[in-house]
Amino acid sequence: MLIKNLIFTTIAILLLFCISPTWAEDVPETRLSLKNLPGVAVFVEELQTNIQKYGKKAGLERALIQAEVEQSLKKQGITVLSYNDWLNTKGRPFLYVNINTHETERYWYAYDIKVEVKQIAILEANPQVKTMVATWGISLTGIANIGNLHNIKKDAMVLVQRFVDAYKTVNRGK
Asked: Which of 14, 24, 80, 98 can bridge 114 by disulfide, Cβ–Cβ 3.0-4.6 Å?
């Protein structure tokens, strides 16, 4: 049994390090995918029901986060595309914000925040196939208790600022 567990663990570790995931990150190569984007639409996922009741008191609501993200982008000179503009923009780029939470024990929440730019990409091996993919992204994981849930939104806005910085790096003069 011990040998079987050791073999399984070894295979799992090898797979973890040998298979390269396709998730986007904030590196110079992925920043190039932001170059010449005329702007982005913004999509913030609904928060899980496990945090909605207490999150509301801390300003942790989908609509408030959406408004704050849009306001931040506009204030820093990045065009926020309306739905109709987005439909008519090549690549249909949008900034995707997802805050995933899990109540680990009473009034304590583990959270993972993901901010990504998603846009349509054409597959090199099959140019007829177009698919929506994350071309740039960043994430942050943390834990908060009921008294500091507002820090989750602050952390999300830190990641949004990282997007702004990345966008401006490759779009100087815009």
From this structure: 98
CATH of residue 49:
3.40.50
pLDDT digits (tens, 9 = 90+) for 64-90: 999 999 999 999 999 999 999 999 999
Residue 112, CA distances (Å) to 2, 49, 133, 142, 159 in order: 34, 15, 20, 7, 12
pLDDT in tens, 90-120: 999 999 999 999 998 888 999 999 999 999 9
Q: Is residue 151 part of a domain?
A: yes
Helix (H) and strand (E) counts in the chain: 6, 4
Strand order in the sheet with 108-122: 41-44, 94-105, 108-122, 130-145
How many domains would you assign to the chain? 1
In single-letter form, the type of residue at position 136 comes to: W
Q: Which two tokens stand for residue 143?
A: 């834990």
pTM for this predicted structure = 0.83
C-alpha–C-alpha distance, residues 79 and 95, integer Å: 11
